[in-house]
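Exercise: predict the fold of this chain.
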Amino acid sequence: MTSAPLQVDMDRPTHGHLSAGERVRIELLDEFEQISLGRLAKVEQLWAEVSHDPSREAATTTLLREWHSLKGDARMMGYVSLGQLAQHAETLVHAARDVGFQVSPTTSQLMTEIRLTAVRWLRERTEPNARTSELAPLVERVGAALLAGV
């Protein structure tokens, strides 16, 4: 009797050498990453919707909720810098709503950069709180946008 060759999925890490606690943490991070990436994809779509039609109050509410949820989830998982980034994005959305989403192209570009930065940080998963050097310039730009009236 011959057996079939062992098939190994090289894209799926094996966690056999890890403790049960480490395996659970990795599983939670996997779930956090997938949920957060889904939130960020939704944020992209919602930002485009409200930028095109500011009267879409439900879309605005959902956009704010997605950033708020990402902020809380990130902090709960220990990703303090990601939580801070989400907080600043949420603040920027509030300010944009206050002016009917009539924002400068620079502010729209900043929102895109914030979202893409969050996506990259989620995928990298390394040193989640050592992002001060990347976070600070984005925070400064959010502050400048707010001072300029968005």
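Check your answer against the key: The helical segments are 20-52, 57-76, 80-98, 105-124, 132-147.
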